[in-house]
Q: What sequence folds into this?
């Protein structure tokens, strides 16, 4: 036990934030999608990364769209998201050095047990979305330019439906992260597209369950990119490279594969 | 759910949960430091605005009062754009650090402390002004005297600032990034647990945050009651 | 006690006027106070007595006309040599002694003016640590007077300082005002108390409707006032 004097408190007030800044010298910032964080993957792998490489990895978890924008403003050393087309554009525009496939899982459509659109057990996502649209069952969309949102829009397009015309009616755009959108969906009994990992680790499922899964169109690829020092001189080249190298190494890939929630594997490594 | 939350809150506290203590400590450090800076800036500005007479004074007070309504998200965004690597202060490398969170909270609560202290001191000025003129009190002495004699009323202004700082999430989550073990504070942890659907844990954290606010307010209430007895309020 | 500097005499006003919302509160007020000692300012309520003192003390920003002290217009230096006791004392939210220390802290005052000496003079030695605003009315006014005396004023303005106070406080305040006068301080004293005026006054300035109705030595004012207003006032009539 130690006593706290006023002076000690004041000192800690001033010193600790500064000390934290200094500690950043040994660390990198990863601009990340939320699903990898909310699913608990980082909590599992980052202590291992720290132990094996000495690297402190600081994760800023936002939607894929915002993560890419932040990285373009040089506010990160590594980008870890899931929207392949946007990622390739990020590299092509010179903001990233090289994109690596990291791992994949899949999207699922979850909804209330009552299943008002009668899509339970369907594998064909196009058919399922068509049934939801036709029955005007509530559907919650991220609406935030995230990787999941982009994937969802791509799926609607594949079904030749433009749900945005029904925005505010049966099509509800929350403009929020995956977790917030899941909370909203459960609250109003709306179908929602989620990555499997976020859903698996979500604690407020209510009577919701997975209705649609297994379509190859629901494939969800995660990529990792190091920020280009040519655009962002402040980026930590070596530390960032160290992290990316670890992730795509055999050791890193095995670690990702070994992460389980309730016995289920949530991410499948597929770096070349 | 609510019962679960109280049980969870009790469990976290009794176990002296290490992660909770870390988050709690950072919350207190960031908001206390922000408060300290805001008080040093806000109180004298509020006092000077209250007792000075210059053209544009009313406009300045109106602007200050309007700043009370600053949405934290907007403050977060502004500070983010300033501190971003590609922003004007990017070279300092402050984004995603506790310092960035302190800056955002200072921007957020300095107007609160300034505007509220201006009102408090205007009232006192109304009472003291003729007497101070009569005694030829120098300006700096007068400002300090107003700040000192209004101290018990100013505590309320300071408390309002602290309450705003410790409870806001919009600004610190943008400039801090809610990074585990680095910039995670009570409010961003609550936001994270909510987004993970762990509503009981989120609510438990909220209960703990509220308890801190209650303790701080109770202490101040006792102080003010004593001050009232001395006719010092 | 050391001797104060000579009084700033004469005190004169010329054409002093103040109009607020169309009402002439001070209406071309001319006065000339050349004698030392205590000048009583009397007159019915609303006549402009307090306003006159406030103009002389520089608490009213823009009156028309002239104010002169020994030929000089009012400036910061002259004001520094003045002190005023208001009808309702304004005391700091601090202890009795802290109220005095506040003034002694930034003013160059007489070295004899210690907190203890001043409090002893106004009979508050027992109350040094008490919150000032919890004192009785008479005690508060005595503290306010002690604070004014701490400024070693050459001119002391008193605006009905003893209205509705206990007799002991009135007695003590009158005694201290007389002591200040004896040390050379010019005193301008507003009072409605004719007995008090008779006890203290060297001369009386009678104000009526924002003007000087008469200015006469005390010896003649109370026995044979010149103006109709003063006659009516002294005989106890209501004067409008």
A:
């Amino acid at each position: 036990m130690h006593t706290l004097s006023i002076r000690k408190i004041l000192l800690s007030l001033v010193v600790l934030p500064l000390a934290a800044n200094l500690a950043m010298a040994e660390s990198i910032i990863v601009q990340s999608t939320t699903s990898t964080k909310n699913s608990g993957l980082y909590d599992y792998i980052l202590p291992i990364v720290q132990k094996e490489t000495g690297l402190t990895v600081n994760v800023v978890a936002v939607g894929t769209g915002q993560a890419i924008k932040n990285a373009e403003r040089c506010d990160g050393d590594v980008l870890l998201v899931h929207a392949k087309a946007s990622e390739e554009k990020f590299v092509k525009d010179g903001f990233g050095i090289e994109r690596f496939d990291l791992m994949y899982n899949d999207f699922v459509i979850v909804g209330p047990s009552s299943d008002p659109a009668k899509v339970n057990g369907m594998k064909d996502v196009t058919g399922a979305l068509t049934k939801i649209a036709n029955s005007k069952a509530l559907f919650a969309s991220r609406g935030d330019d995230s990787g999941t949102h982009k994937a969802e829009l791509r799926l609607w397009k594949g079904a030749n439906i433009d749900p945005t015309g029904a925005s505010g009616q049966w099509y509800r755009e929350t403009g929020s992260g995956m977790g917030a959108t899941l909370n909203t969906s459960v609250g109003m009994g709306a179908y929602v597209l989620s990555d499997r990992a976020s859903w698996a680790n979500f604690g407020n499922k209510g009577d919701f369950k997975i209705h649609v899964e297994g379509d190859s169109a629901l494939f969800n690829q995660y990529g990792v990119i190091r920020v280009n020092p040519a655009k962002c001189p402040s980026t930590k080249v070596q530390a960032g490279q160290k992290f990316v190298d670890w992730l795509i190494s055999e050791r890193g890939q095995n670690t990702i594969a070994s992460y389980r929630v309730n016995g289920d594997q949530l991410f499948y490594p597929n770096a070349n | 759910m609510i019962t679960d939350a109280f049980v969870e809150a009790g469990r976290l506290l009794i176990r002296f949960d290490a992660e909770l203590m870390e988050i709690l400590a950072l919350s207190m450090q960031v908001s206390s430091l922000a408060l300290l800076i805001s008080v040093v800036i806000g109180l004298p500005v509020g006092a000077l605005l209250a007792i000075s007479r210059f053209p544009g004074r009313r406009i300045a007070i109106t602007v200050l009062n309007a700043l009370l309504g600053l949405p934290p998200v907007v403050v977060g965004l502004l500070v983010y754009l300033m501190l971003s690597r590609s922003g004007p202060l990017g070279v300092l490398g402050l984004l995603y650090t506790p310092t960035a969170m302190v800056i955002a909270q200072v921007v957020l609560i300095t107007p609160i402390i300034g505007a509220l202290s201006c009102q408090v001191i205007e009232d006192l000025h109304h009472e003291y002004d003729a007497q101070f003129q009569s005694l030829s009190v120098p300006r700096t002495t007068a400002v300090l005297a107003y700040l000192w004699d209004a101290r018990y009323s100013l505590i309320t202004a300071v408390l309002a600032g602290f309450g705003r700082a410790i409870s806001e999430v919009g600004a610190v989550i943008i400039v801090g990034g809610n990074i585990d073990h680095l910039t995670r504070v009570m409010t961003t942890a609550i936001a994270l647990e909510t987004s993970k659907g762990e509503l009981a844990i989120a609510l438990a954290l909220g209960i703990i945050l509220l308890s801190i606010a209650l303790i701080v307010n109770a202490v101040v209430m006792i102080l003010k009651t004593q001050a009232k007895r001395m006719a010092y309020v | 006690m050391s001797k104060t500097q000579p009084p700033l005499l004469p005190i004169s006003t010329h054409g002093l006027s103040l109009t607020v919302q169309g009402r002439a509160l001070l209406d071309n007020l001319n006065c000339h106070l050349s004698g030392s000692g205590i000048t009583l300012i009397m007159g019915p309520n609303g006549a402009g007595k307090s306003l006159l003192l406030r103009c002389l003390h520089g608490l009213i920003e823009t009156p028309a006309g002239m104010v002169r002290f020994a030929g000089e217009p009012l400036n910061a230096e002259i004001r520094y040599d003045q002190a005023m006791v208001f009808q309702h004392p304004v005391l700091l939210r601090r202890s009795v002694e802290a109220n005095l220390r506040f003034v002694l802290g930034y003013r160059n005052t007489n070295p004899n003016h210690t907190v203890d000496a001043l409090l002893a003079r106004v009979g508050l030695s027992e109350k040094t640590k008490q919150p000032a605003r919890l004192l009785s009315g008479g005690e508060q006014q005595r503290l306010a007077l002690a604070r004014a005396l701490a400024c070693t004023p050459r001119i002391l303005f008193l605006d009905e300082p003893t209205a509705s106070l206990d007799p002991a406080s009135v007695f003590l305040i009158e005694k201290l005002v007389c002591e200040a006068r004896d040390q050379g301080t010019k005193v301008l004293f507003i009072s409605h108390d004719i007995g008090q005026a008779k006890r203290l006054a060297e001369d009386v300035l009678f104000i009526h409707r924002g003007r000087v109705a008469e200015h006469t030595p005390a010896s003649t004012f109370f026995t044979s006032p010149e103006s109709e207003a003063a006659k009516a006032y002294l005989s106890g009539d209501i004067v409008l």
In short: The first strand of chain C starts at residue 11 and ends at 20. The interface with chain B takes residues 54, 57-59, 76, 79-80, 82-84, 86, 90, 92-94, 102-103, 105-107, 131, 133-134, 147, 151 of chain C (CB under 8 Å). The CA atoms of residues 83 and 156 of chain C lie 5 Å apart. Chain C has a mean pLDDT of 92.
